[in-house]
Amino acid sequence: MKVDWKQVASSPGYKSLKAALVRDIGGNRRNMSGRSKEEMYARFNWIIARAQHYAHVQNRPLSSILNEWEDKRSSWWFGHYAESSHPKLGSGKPKNVKPQSMRNYYKTDPWLRRKSPKERFKQIRNTKTREAKFNREHRLGKKPRWSPDRKRINATYRRIKRQENL
Questions:
Q1: Which comes out higher in pLDDT, residue 133 or 31?
Q2: 166 pLDDT higher than 90
Q3: Can you say whether residue 144 is alpha, beta or left, with left for phi > 0 and alpha for psi between -120 and 50 degrees?
Q4: At what angle do helices 37-58 and 12-25 cross, to 10 degrees?
Q5: Average per-residue pLDDT in the chain?
Q6: C-alpha distance from residue 121 to each of 78, 110, 158 (Å)
Q7: Contacts with 71 (C-beta within 8 Å, 6 or more apart), sequence order
Q8: Does residue 28 surpass a pLDDT of 60?
Q9: With the C-alpha atoms ordered 31, 35, 36, 41, is the resulting torsion angle positive or negative?
Q10: Where is the stretch described as Disordered (predicted)?
Q11: Of 5, 17, 3, 1, the residue nearest 67 (C-alpha)
Q12: What is residue 15's predicted lDDT score, i.e. its pLDDT?
C-alpha cells in the first residue's frame, strides 16, 4: 500500500499530533512528563506505524485514520495512544488453524504411505530425530537443570549406596 506522505503531512490529524509532540519537546518549556525526547519520538513513530497498519487492514487512507483518532482524543497524546487503546488488528484468518508439525505430517503424507513398513518406520524415525535435533538446538539458550559437577557427585553417591546394599 503506497502512502502519499505530502497528503498525510497536510492532514489536520497529523498536524495536531505533530504540534502536540513539538509542544512537549519544545526547547523553552521544561518536559513535565519526565519522558525523554527519544521516547517521545519513538511513540510518535509507533503511532504512525499503527495508523499505517489500520489503514492497510481497513483499506482506508492513512490521513483519515489519523484525523479520526485525533478527533476522538481528549487527553494527553502520549497517554492516549497506547497498545490497549489501539491494538493490532487481526488478519482475518482463523486463529485455531495452525501449521502442521512433522509428527502429524508423516501420518497424512501419501508418498510415505506407499513405502514398505520398514522404510516407512525408518523415515518416520529420521524425521522425528531431525525434529528433536532442531528443537534441541533452538533451546540451547536454556540453562541445564543440573550442572555436570552435580551429576558426577550424584552418580558417585548412587554407586556407593548400591555397593553398600550388595
A1: 133
A2: no
A3: beta
A4: 170
A5: 80
A6: 59, 15, 37
A7: 13
A8: no
A9: negative
A10: 128-166
A11: 17
A12: 92
Kindly tell me the burial class for residue 51, based on how many C-beta atoms sit within 10 Å of its own C-beta (0-12, 13-18, 19 or more): buried
116, three cell numbers: 514398505
Place of cell 546394599: 165
CA dist., res. 156 & res. 148, Å (int): 12
Kindly report the pTM of this predicted structure.
0.54
133: which 3 cell numbers? Answer: 535435533
Query: Could you identify the residue written with the cell 501419501?
Result: 110
Q: What are 67-78's pLDDT values in tens digits?
A: 999 998 888 888
Cβ contact 29:23 at 8 Å? yes
Cell of 3: 502512502
Please tell me the distance from the alpha carbon of residue 76 to that of residue 6, in angstroms, as a whole number.
Answer: 26
Contact 75, 65 (CB under 8 A): no
